[in-house]
Amino acid sequence: MKKSGYEYLLAYKITVPIYDYTVVFCDRFIEKRSRTHDQMVQAARSGMQNIAEGYKEQGTKGYIKLAGVARGSLEELLNDYRSFARQHNLSIWPKERAIREIREIGEIWEILRKNRVLPDHPDFPYLPDSSEIDVNLMITLIHQANYLLDRLIPSLKERHKTHGGLTEELYNARKTYRGY
């Protein structure tokens, strides 16, 4: 089965475990019927789904906008994890420590790199059973996703600048049709 182009993007692939782990984290540590639970899960979902939706837009302008929405959603989610750490007196580790001590980060990246597109059921490791490790895992993954989106958005803007957008394409097609 042919996969969509966005499924090859690291910026998209890293958001899949972010969403999956956020659901597990929220179910584990945040009251299920709370607004925070719903908002964190929706922010994680938005971070993933807006990349896919943007890729499917007919014009680059829409893709840029939705990639920005994905970035904003992930920033919101990052702040929720930071707030959770603050409210529960958990340490936020430097990036180097998180990468060194949380083995799941390396395992996740091995899966992302090994698979050009993620299988329907990627074999991501289980979320550790420690709120401090979980928070630091999630903060690290979100920073990595944000970094990738911060590179994707300027490349989309450059593509729009050099190749134009849907409006120009439609205008040029109309001019050609009318014989201008």
UniProtKB/TrEMBL annotation:
It comes from Candidatus Gottesmanbacteria bacterium RIFCSPHIGHO2_01_FULL_46_14. It comes from the Bacteria. Pfam families: 23S_rRNA_IVP. This is Four helix bundle protein.
